[in-house]
Amino acid sequence: TLEGSTWTKTNVALGSEGEKTLVVNCSDAVGNVSAPETVTFYYDLNKPEISETAIGSATLTTNGGFTIGGTVRDTNQMASVTIVAKLGGVEKKSWTILKTAKDTLENWSQAVTYADLGSADGTYTLTATATDIAGKTESLQRTVTIDSTPPEIAVDAGVETSLGGWQRATSVSLSGTASDAASGVSRVEYRVNGGT
Q1: DSSP conformation class of 59
Q2: Distance from C-alpha of 79 to C-alpha of 102, rounded to nearest angstrom
Q3: Residue-wise over 32-63: b if at least 16 C-beta within 10 A, else e?
């Protein structure tokens, strides 16, 4: 209860998060009561929570598309998840997924194709940002390397020369080079007359 023609009240406890309705009225010295004035507002304390499990914390290396996804939750209400893919600091593509659950764990997922990223190889940084209904945000990042270019292989010139004639031994020595600029060479295979 406040007295006077102007009034101020500080430290009004708001209780739990969510939609709130403030109701105020006044009365005069003889007991007449005014009609109430109402103000609706929203109260939010916490940032949303976001996780990503489809890629995980390690860098993913792939030769094409992939999926990024996980869960989000907000103690009040979610609004969206936005994913931004950048290559060399330049944005290549973004996606927005609407999420509106109240205090509920929700799944989110986005399939990313090679064409979505302009069919360009390289190491991408993906930032996923959860936004709640109050505009508070929480973000995480994942790294994906796309390598669609085949590796290169060569047989040493000396080997080619030595194999140019008839072989008199039951086995030969092979050597050469193999390279891959993006994901690296994982193995070298050889076959003789289609064998393994």
Answers
A1: P
A2: 10
A3: eeeeeeeeeeeebeebbebebeebeeeebeee
**Residue 5, CA atoms < 13 Å, CB-side half-sphere:** 0
* CB distance 149 to 116 below 8 Å: no
Beta 60-62 vs 152-155: how paired, if at all?
unpaired
Q: How far is CA 34 from the centre of its chain?
A: 53
d(C-alpha 123, C-alpha 40), whole Å: 47
CA 142 – CA 126 distance, rounded (Å): 5
Q: What share of the chain is helix, strand, coil (3-state, %, to 5)?
A: 5, 45, 50
Please give the full DSSP string across 96-160, using - where no structure is assigned: EEE---SS--EEEEEEE-TGGGTT--EEEEEEEEEEETTS-EEEEEEEEEE--SPPEEEE-HHHH
- Say how far residue 151 (Cα) sits from the centre of its chain: 29
Cα of first residue to Cα of last residue in the chain, in angstroms, is: 91
25-69 confidence digits (pLDDT tens): 988 889 999 999 999 988 888 999 999 999 998 789 999 999 999
Chain segment 125-184, per-residue pLDDT in tens: 999 999 999 999 999 999 999 999 899 999 988 887 778 778 878 888 889 999 988 888
